Amino acid sequence: MRRWNGWGDEATVVELPAHGQGFLESRIGAGQVLVDASLEQVLAKVLASRLPAHPLVSVEAEVRVRHARGQSLPDWLAMRSGEFGVFPDGVALPETAAQIRELLVWAQQHDVVVIPYGGGTSVAGHINPRDGLRPVLTLSLARMSQLLEIDEQSLIATFGPGANGPQVEAQLRAKGYTLGHFPQSWELSTLGGWVASRSSGQQSLRYGRIEQLFAGGKIETFAGTLEIPTFPASAAGPDLREMILGSEGRFGIISEVKVRITRLAEEEKFYAVFLPSWSQALAAIRSLVQARVPLSMLRLSNAIETETQLALAGHPEQIALLEKYLAFRGARAGKCMLTFGVTGNRQQNALSIKQAKRLLKGFGGVFTGTLLGKKWAENRFRFPYLRHGLWEAGYAVDTLETATDWANVDHLLNQVEDSLRNALSAEGEQVHVFTHLSHVYGEGSSIYTSYVFRPAASYAQTLARWSKLKHAASLAIVNNRGTISHQHGVGRDHAPYLPVEKGEQGIAALKALSRHFDPDQRLAPGVLLED
Amino acid sequence: MRRWNGWGDEATVVELPAHGQGFLESRIGAGQVLVDASLEQVLAKVLASRLPAHPLVSVEAEVRVRHARGQSLPDWLAMRSGEFGVFPDGVALPETAAQIRELLVWAQQHDVVVIPYGGGTSVAGHINPRDGLRPVLTLSLARMSQLLEIDEQSLIATFGPGANGPQVEAQLRAKGYTLGHFPQSWELSTLGGWVASRSSGQQSLRYGRIEQLFAGGKIETFAGTLEIPTFPASAAGPDLREMILGSEGRFGIISEVKVRITRLAEEEKFYAVFLPSWSQALAAIRSLVQARVPLSMLRLSNAIETETQLALAGHPEQIALLEKYLAFRGARAGKCMLTFGVTGNRQQNALSIKQAKRLLKGFGGVFTGTLLGKKWAENRFRFPYLRHGLWEAGYAVDTLETATDWANVDHLLNQVEDSLRNALSAEGEQVHVFTHLSHVYGEGSSIYTSYVFRPAASYAQTLARWSKLKHAASLAIVNNRGTISHQHGVGRDHAPYLPVEKGEQGIAALKALSRHFDPDQRLAPGVLLED
C-alpha cells in the first residue's frame, strides 16, 4: 500500500544506520523529532465537497487526502503535521480520452478548477489545490496506464499518460524493449508527468531526456484535442511537442503519449572511480563528456557528498578498508566519487571503458571495479525512502537542482551550497549540504544539491526554516545564471523565480499561450506562471 | 560575384556532361531551352520605392532585384524570365541589434512590412515580397556575420545572425573548432536562417540538427528583445528556443545566435557501399542507425538515383569498370549506393567502420573503399550549381523533401515518386524522379526526392508544370503521414499544407503567438501561417 504521508510503498523501509546518525550529529547536532498526525486526524479535517455529483468523480475523504499533496518538503511537513490546509473537492479517475473531455466540459459548466495528476511525485507544488472560491477537481490519469501499441520498425510505443515507471518498463521489457527513462521518482512518477514537467532520467546520457523520447501524442484542451503526429524530425514550423513539454498542465491534459524506445542492450555495467580532488574531478568529467565517449551514465559526487555517502552506507568496517586502499592510491580527504555506466554492445562498451579509464587516470582517478557501481544501480531508487529514516532520527532532508554551462558550474555550485549553509545562521543552526553532478552535457551540467537540517520545535517553525533555505538557494541559482530547474519543473514553488530566466518577453509569450488554451485559467492555476 | 539570377558564385560552373545529357534524353526526351532575361531588362522593370528615406535603407534598383527572390524553382523561373512581379521597396543592412530595433520602430511608424533576409537561399518562398498596399522592407543580416565570443569551457560560440556557412566555419576553425552544420546550401545560407527555418546539415548524425546546436540568443520583436539564456538543459517550462526555431521570421528578427561547437575531430572518412536491392538497402540503413553505431553521416540513394548519379558523373569508362566490379560482386541493376562517414577519434572510428562493414555485409553490401566517399565530400556543395548546367541543356530540376517513421518510409517514398512521375502525364510529359535518404534517425528517415522535367514552350507554362508537380507531391506527403518539410521549412510554398500535420489546434496556437508578437502582422506575412 502506498504511504499516504510520505514516499513509496509502506513495505519498503530505509533506516538511517547508527554510524550515519553519529555522522550527522557531529555535523549539525542531535536530531529533533516531531510528532506526526494520524490519517484519522487528517480525515476529520476534510470539509464537505463543493462539487456536484459526477459518476467519474469520487468525493470520498481518504481519496481526497491521498491526492492533496506531492512530495516537496512543505508537502511532507503538511502531511506529517496533518495541516493540509486545502484538499481537492474531488478526484476523477477517467479511463479514456473521451472521459477527460467530458470532465473538461463539466468543469467549465460548473466553474471548476482542474488539476492534472500523474504520480503525485511533484517536488515543486504542481498538484496542490489552492484556496479559492472555485471548487477543485484533481484529475488523476492512474487508470490510463496501458501500453496501447508498439511500432517495432519505428521503435515507437504508445502509452496511456498514467503509466508509471515500472508499468512502462514491464510492458516494454516483455517485448524486448526499454524506454530507458529512470528519474529517481521512477517507482511512482508517470509518463504524462515526465512530459508535462520535462523530466530527465539517470541514463539520459544514452537515452536522452524526456524531450528526446517524447515523439507525439494527444492533449485535451478546452478548445479541442491537440494531436501531435510522430516524425523523426521536421522543419515544419515550431515543434508543438516543445509547447507541451514543460507546460505543467497549463495548456491541456495529456491523454496519450508516444515515446521512442530502444531494444534492450546486450550489456550494461557501472563503475566507480575516485578522483583525488574536486578540481581534478570536475576537469575529468567535462573532458569525458566533451570527448563524446559513448557512456550511458555519469555521476560525480563532490567531496562532502562522497564523505556523506560513505558515512551513511552503514558498513563502517568495509568502508574503512576502502578508504585505506584509496588513500594508498592517492585519493585521501577531499576525494570525489565518480560513477559511470556503459550500456550497449560488448565491443562498444569495452572501447568506451578503455577510453574512459585512460582519460580518468590522467586526472588521478583510482578505479574500484564494478562493486560500488552495482550498489549504485541496486539502490538508485532508494534515496527518497531515506527521508523517512532521517525524519525518524530527527532530521529533515530536501534536495534542489539546477543546470548551467561548464564555465559556471563550479561558481554556481559554490553559491548554492553557501546560500544553504548560511541560511539558518541567524538561528544558530548548521545545515549539512552536499552536491553531485548527475546529468552532463557537452555544454554544461546539472547540479543536484541535498541539504539536511534540524526541524524546529514546531511544524510551522520548521516550514519557516525551509522557506529561508529554499528562497536563499533559489535566488543564488537565478542570480548566477542557473536555470530554476533542470529536472523537477517549476510548479508553484519555482514560479516566482522563473521570470529571471525567461525574461519579460518570454513570460508574456507563455501567458499568451496559456490564455489561448485556457481563457478561464481553469487548469492548474498558479503553476508555472504566477497569476 | 554572386549570381543575380541563380545559384552561387559566377566563377563556379558545373556543366551537364554529354553522357548525362544522353541519359536524360533517353528518359524524358530532348531538352527545351528558354531564353533568359538580362539584368538590364529586369532593372528597367523596378518601380520607384514607396519607402520614405532612411539612412540604413537602400532603394537602389539592383540591390532590390538581388533581394527579391530565393532559390525555389518558381524563383528560378522568375529570375530567368525577368518576370519578378514584386520587388521589395528597399533593403536595409543593419550592423547592430540596436539598428534592427530602430528599423522595427520605423517600420511601425510608416506601416511597412518587414522581411528578414539571411542568405536568400530559401526554396519555399520565405523571402519573396507580396503585392499589397504596404511598402516592403527586406532586412538583410549580411553585415552581422562576426564571431563575437567563444566560451571554450562550455563550447559555445556567439555569432551575428548573418554569418554564412564559410564565415561560421572559417572563424571557428581558426581556433580549432567546428559547428558541424553543413546543409547543401552551406556556401550561402546563414546561421540566423538555419535557426529560423530549422535547418539540418549533412552530418546531423554526429552534430545534430540546428535544434540541437542552437543554444540561445536574442530576438528583436515589436514588444522588445527576447533574450534566451544558455543552459545545457532545463525543465523550467516550455523551451523558448523551440518557439524561435522554425518561426521563419514571424515572431521577430534574430539578432544574435549562440551555438554549441565541437573540437575538430582527429579523423574523418567517408565510404561508399553498394547494396544489391532497395529492400536490402532500406533494411540495412535502418539496422545501422538503430544499432547506434556512432557514424557521422549516412546517405542512401535509391536505384534510380544511383543509376542517375553514375550516369551524370561524367567518366563513362571508369564508371563502366566500377559497374563490372559491382556486378561481379552481386550488385547489378537495381543496386543502391550508400555513403557513410565516421568523424571522431581513430580508435572509435575504427570500431565504427568495423561494425558498419559487418552489418552491411549481412545485407549483401559491396564495399568500394573511400574513393567515392571522398568524391561525395568534395562535391557535397556542388549539386545546386548543376541546376545551371541542366537548364542550359534544356532541363529543369527541383527537389523536395519530407520525413516519416521507418514503418512508413518505403510507402511514402513511393507515393511521392509516383505523384511526380504521373503529374504531367496529361501533357504526355515524362518526369525523371529519384530519391535518397540523407538524414536518418532511430525513429525514421528524411526522404529527399529530385525531379527533372522539360520546360514548356513558355515560362508561364513551365511554371504551371511545376505547380502541378509540387502540388501533387505535397498532397502525397501530407496525406501519407509525411511532414511537409524535414529541412527546408514552410515559407509560403508549403504553408497551405501545414494545417494537415499541425491540426486545427496547433495552427490556432501558432497564430496566437504570431498575433502576440506581431499584432499588425508586419513580419513576413503569409510565411509559415497563411493569412
From TrEMBL, chains A, B:
The active site is at residue 448. Coiled coil: none annotated. SUPFAM superfamilies: FAD-binding/transporter-associated domain-like, FAD-linked oxidases, C-terminal domain. It comes from the Bacteria. GO terms for molecular function: alkylglycerone-phosphate synthase activity; FAD binding. GO terms for biological process: lipid biosynthetic process. Residues 84-264 form the FAD-binding PCMH-type domain. The keyword Flavoprotein applies. FAD binds at residues 116-122, 248-254. The record marks 299 as: Important for enzyme activity. Its EC number is 2.5.1.26. Substrate binds at residue 387. The keyword Transferase applies. Keywords: FAD, Flavoprotein, Transferase. It is an enzyme of class 2 (transferase). Its cofactor is FAD. Belongs to the FAD-binding oxidoreductase/transferase type 4 family. This is Alkyldihydroxyacetonephosphate synthase. It comes from Pseudomonas fluvialis.
